[in-house]
Amino acid sequence: MPAYKAPLRDMKFLLNEVFDYPKHYASLASGENATPDIVDAILTECARFCEEQLSPLYQLGDEEGCTLKDGEVTTPKGYKEAYNQYVMGGWQGLSAPEEFGGQGLPASMGLMKQEMMGTANWSFSMYPGLSMGAMNTIFLHGSDDQKDTYLLPLTEGRWAGTMCLTEPQCGTDLGQVKTKAEPQTDGSYKITGTKIFISSGDHDLTENIVHIVLARLPDAPKGTRGISLFIVPKFMPGADGSVGERNAVVCGSLEKKMGIKASATCVLNFDGATGYLIGPENEGLECMFTFMNTARIGTAIQGVGPAELSYQWALDYARERRSMRALSGKKEPDQVADSLIHHADVRRMLLTQKAIAEGGRAMLYDAARLADHMVEGHAAGDTKKAEKYDDKLGFLTPILKGFLTELGNEAASLGMQVFGGHGYIREHGMEQIARDTRIATLYEGTTGIQALDLLGRKVLLTTKGGAVRDFTARIANFARKHLTDSRLRPFALDLLKLTAQWNLLTVRIMLAARKDRDVVSSASYDFLMYSGYVTMAYMWARQAATAVNCLDNGGDDSEAFYTTKLATAEFYFERLLPRAQTHATSMLSPSRNLMQIDPENMAFTG
């Protein structure tokens, strides 16, 4: 059975040498205890937990799946024991406020933990991962009583959380939500309706589950303006914090899915369940965005994770499997054939996986610093600071989620390809990575929705192109500093050209959209992918610049490590970055070629 090894060397390179996290943590109130020694110890221990506890359950959980009997869900064998180990290790409260039982470490530490857990076993990681969004929502929008009731058991991991948005008649278009909330004389509400696709909607890992539910009040306006947010526990909390009577919410069925089969994806039926309003009436969608942004950043990990896992297993296989001779001559003359890794096309696939995994990880860690400042602003009541960093992170969120999950699917497919026919059978685990990864481009907003959010909302509507101008200015400032170094000049020149092009493309789409609104939708996917390739190029250039500095002045790792970083950056710029130009051409193509065929003429059958 394949095994996962945490990429600690690459993680520490980004943390300590590329992004200078020690300096970053020193600037945060929550970073007081995030000293280099403590961070290193936490990462090492988390790696051990993921390698020894979670990775062995990955394929076993897929084989067994979850089961539903009498409205109760049972997780696969070993999951409850692993979750108990997770709780005992205090992992759920790593970045939670100390006042509610957490360790008070920066939010980015939780992201790094989630990356390792998600790579080792994405199905398992979804159970505590959904709880984090519920905790953040209650912390930011809940009343003092709600915080006192729910945050401590959620932080300790004794209770879990969910996000209940989607209904049978609506997915992304939440304006169609029909779940009702009837006010009661005691200040509670009776919640009635059906929610579908609810990750971790029911399970046997915790003593209680706290559902965060979108519903409508009787006099609510139509559309998204009339949605409120409610806390609906599976079991009613007792006054002493204990678990009381069962609430009227039941798992009606488990979704039969392509992948992540060990993650319970439920249909939940609320039949007059007791719920409590969280946040202002009819502003539930605004409050839910706290959950959504958390979920989308977390989902972006499912682009990096499968690329990393598939790369690790494909690399091992390519080193061991022998087939034919390399075109440049025998590499292993004492063997019957040369290893796959000596063939250039196999190298193409492996390096693509490597560039996606390590470039995507850099994108996540760069964004995580913004998340740290945003969370600190919220915690300190500094609205101005929180909004500033929320805006910066908001621009990157759809790029992270949409672009990285698309590339994660590509990397998983390439891993299967390296294995050839063996990649298609279940024994080696490669087809499971591909199945598990496919959902990442769909949930928490499909790639198309992320693209519309990026171009339509963040770039054109909200900032009039300002978000692109601000981010490209940051890239250009970096590039100019490295024009004089011959090793970095090619990267810097490409980045300067791309920043100018990115702004020009934005202006051209903005002007075209004045005459044809469909341009925004028709250009959005290519705009997102272009944005992703340029952003990853920036991250690879930063890694290359750091590698050059370490080669010249000494670093924490070996010379081979840094030269490999430079070579991978060169591969990315020369082999993958050119894809951006295809997207640039496509996004300027008129919407006419998409919309001119009448719907009834899309197919001629019979």
Gyration radius, rounded: 24 Å
Shape: globular
Which oligomeric form is depicted?
single chain
| Individual helix count | 19
Alpha-beta classification: alpha+beta
End-to-end span in angstroms? 49 Å
Count the strands? Answer: 11
- Outline the biggest β-sheet: 7 strands, mixed
Give average pLDDT, whole number. 94
State which percent range the strand residues make up. Answer: 5-15%
Helix content: 55-70%
- Please provide the ordered H/E string of secondary-structure elements: HHHHEEHHHHEEEEEEEEEHHHHHHHHHHH
Stretches with pLDDT under 50, minimum 5 residues = none
Briefly characterize the structure.
The protein has 606 residues and is α+β, with helices and mostly antiparallel strands.
Q: What features would you describe in this structure?
A:
The protein is of the alpha+beta class and 606 residues long. 57% of the residues lie in helices and 11% in strands. A hairpin with a 5-residue loop joins β4 and β5. Belongs to the acyl-CoA dehydrogenase family. Keywords: FAD, Flavoprotein, Oxidoreductase. Its cofactor is FAD.
SSE inventory with pairings:
Blueprint: H1 8-18, H2 21-26, H3 36-54, H4 57-64, E1 67-69, E2 72-74, H5 79-88, H6 107-120, H7 122-141, H8 144-156, E3 159-164, E4 180-183, E5 189-199, E6 208-215, E7 228-233, E8 235-237, E9 243-246, E10 249-254, E11 265-277, H9 284-320, H10 344-380, H11 383-419, H12 430-438, H13 447-462, H14 466-480, H15 489-515, H16 518-553, H17 559-576, H18 579-587, H19 592-595
Parallel strand pairs: 3-6
Antiparallel strand pairs: 1-2, 4-5, 5-11, 6-7, 7-11, 8-9, 10-11
Helix pairs in contact: 1-10, 3-6, 6-7, 6-9, 6-10, 7-8, 7-9, 9-10, 9-11, 9-12, 10-11, 10-16, 10-17, 11-12, 11-13, 11-16, 13-16, 14-15, 15-16, 16-17, 16-18
